[in-house]
Amino acid sequence: xxxxxxxxxxxxxxxxxxxxxxxxxxxxxxxxxxxxxxxxxxxxxxxxxxxxxxxxxxxxxxxxxxxxxxxxxxxxxxxxxxxxxxxxxxxxxxxxxxxxxxxxxxxxxxxxxxxxxxxxxxxxxxxxxxxxxxxxxxxxxxxxxxxxxxxxxxxxxxxxxxxxxxxxxxxxxxxxxxxxxxxxxxxxxxxxxxxxxxxxxxxxxxxxxxxxxxxxxxxxxxxxxxxxxxxxxxxxxxxxxxxxxxx
Length: 247
What we know:
8 helices; 9 strands; Beta Polymerase, domain 2; alpha+beta; single chain
């Protein structure tokens, strides 16, 4: 475990403690799940933590973090134009590390209801891809008025996407650039499998093996050395959002 991973492990424990105390369900996701199953901790080259949380708990998570997160060490990023919230480590030079895109962070992937019917899914897709495009564009925008406009557009798309699923839909989805590979059943999250992760534990979804095989194929075999990489992105707009909320 390297220095960055030691910080991430500290962040994981702090986050899990808050979520557990407030009765908020969470599960390890993506590379963090693979790390738990295959390595008993971090994938050696991984550089972030991935957790699933339910979208309906998003407001409770925000309130819990506002009350209990140690703001001298961590920043809860409620995004204006990103697709998901994050917990960021505040080191000695937080703004500098944000500019350099070096800040350790936890991704909180929001599990949302997905429409059951084909027509509603057809309606959802263009809004999802437009939301993704807005998020990408916002990372390259320096103008404050344009940034505010993109933030309002993102809020509108979020509301539309939340309104489209049927009330009794059993499908869940994480809306990211690879969302078609992140579609699950609610029953996948009916229960946990706790596994060692370094010197602590993480809860995996009950059907983690099927989910990981769908996403990665033979996830127990490490990729070739040339394809071993950590997080593929960095939280969008986090520096701008932080400066707005701390002025």
